[in-house]
Design brief:
alpha/beta, 42% helix, Rossmann fold, 6-stranded parallel beta sheet, 12 helices, binds nicotinamide-adenine-dinucleotide, single chain, 374 residues, binds zinc ion, Dehydroquinate synthase-like, alpha domain, 11 strands
Length: 374
């Protein structure tokens, strides 16, 4: 939302509000086993037998039973991608040129299968195929000029909300920053909770907490409106059920998948906050993955999100999670400065957390004090 000030007929200043008009995923299929309908969904989108569908799949599925369920036909390409490191602008550029070199026809679509890493890669490849230059040129807000290729997102771990968001977060030469645009959002999402079966306990918690932290930061933010609040509260309730109750694993998978969706919807109209801003700095300098990075920062944000941190500690205990320690204590001043630079560059996140005068309330020394506790 932004405020426009102009003069009315009587030369008095009138203020009008400009509401954001953001895109939503136009098609979504939900349910255990719904992945098996992907072949039919894609059939309707295939331009011809020479225009392939490119499947970008987390390599955790390589060689497993799931491989045979991927509906690749004609000259479709399955590319397995490792998600140990978060996606990079250079990696997107390389994937796009690989696809261009392999096929003379424009692909019928890009399908991302995996966690936030693979979903973001699929979004970025779909954008960069139709927009000139490097992915790094589009990091920021509304810099993408042309519609992307048809792209489908299929999460296999729940929490990031990347399946529903209008951003793809990439590590670039200068910044870890999203390509935020109307062309980023998926054209189709397949939500099949069974696909999240193999996720390890710690990763389930870290990515799940990403959703929980989205909710806290959105619900405690200055950008909050009733639209965001309604999604954020639902996602928060689902997170509490999943991480504080004794749910049957099937039910937990279903509920966390929907929590992720609602959490993502909640930040669509608001923003995340301090944990995310600081986690971006951590990730840029140390390569710490998003979910874990958020947890590491969030535990030290009692001054800003007291109830959220208390709930987080209860969830951590209930799920027997021990977070790594002493990651930053030995860092040199230059690294800490770099973390602060990246973090303080996230203007909308700070503004959402602390209001328009956030610069008067936070400074690099305050951030360093928090980083040094991690
Ligand atoms: P991830 O994609 O990095 O995957 C984490 C780990 O889980 C990997 O080792 C992966 O192999 C494994 N994994 C995934 N599915 C599995 C399965 N079914 N069985 C076994 N292992 C499985 O994790 P994530 O937390 O979902 O994503 C983090 C990324 O998402 C970061 O790059 C972050 O920047 C991005 N992100 C994007 C948005 C957005 O709106 N675009 C929002 C939040 C985070
Ligand atoms: Zn997040």
């Amino acid at each position: 939302m932004s405020l426009n000030k102009e003069l009315d007929f009587n030369n008095k200043i009138k203020t009008s509000v400009n509401y954001r008009n953001f895109p939503m995923v136009p098609r979504v299929i939900y349910g255990k086993g719904s992945f098996d309908q992907l072949g039919d969904i894609l059939l309707a989108k295939r331009k011809n037998a020479d225009a392939p569908v490119i499947f970008l799949v987390d390599d955790v599925f390589e060689g497993g039973e799931f491989e045979s369920r991927i509906p690749a036909i004609f000259n479709d390409l399955i590319l397995y991608v490792n998600s140990e490191e978060e996606p990079k602008t250079g990696q997107v550029d390389a994937l796009v040129s690989e696809i261009r070199d392999m096929f003379s026809e424009v692909p019928s679509g890009i399908v991302g299968i995996g966690g936030g890493t693979l979903l973001d890669l699929a979004k970025a490849v779909a954008i960069l195929y139709t927009n000139k230059g490097s992915a790094a040129n589009y990091q920021g807000w509304d810099l993408v000029q042309k519609p992307s290729l048809y792209h489908v997102g299929i999460p296999t771990i729940s929490g990031t909300g990347a399946e529903v968001s209008r951003t793809t977060v990439l590590m670039g030469p200068e910044m870890k920053l999203g390509i935020n645009s109307d062309y980023t959002t998926f054209d189709q999402v397949v939500l099949d909770p069974d696909l999240t079966r193999g996720v390890q306990k710690e990763q389930w918690f870290y990515t799940g907490m990403d959703c929980f932290i989205h909710c806290v930061e959105s619900l405690r933010g200055t950008y909050l409106n009733t639209f965001s609040q309604s999604y954020g509260e639902k996602a928060m309730d689902l997170c509490e059920e999943v991480f504080l109750n004794e749910l049957d694993p099937d039910e937990a998978r279903e509920k966390l998948m929907m929590a992720s969706w609602h959490g993502g919807m909640s930040i669509a109209y608001s923003q995340v906050g301090i944990a995310h801003a600081m986690s971006y700095g951590l990730s840029f300098v140390l390569g710490t993955r998003h979910g874990l990075g958020n947890c590491l920062v969030f535990q030290h944000l009692k001054d800003y999100y007291p109830e959220g941190v208390e709930l987080f500690e209860r969830m951590k205990k209930k799920n027997d999670i021990l977070l790594p320690e002493n990651l930053c204590s030995g860092l040199c001043e230059e690294d800490l400065d770099e973390m602060c630079r990246v973090s303080l560059g996230m203007t909308p996140l700070w503004e959402n957390a602390l209001g328009p005068h956030w610069r008067e309330q936070i400074n690099p020394d305050m951030l360093k004090e928090i980083y040094l506790k991690i």
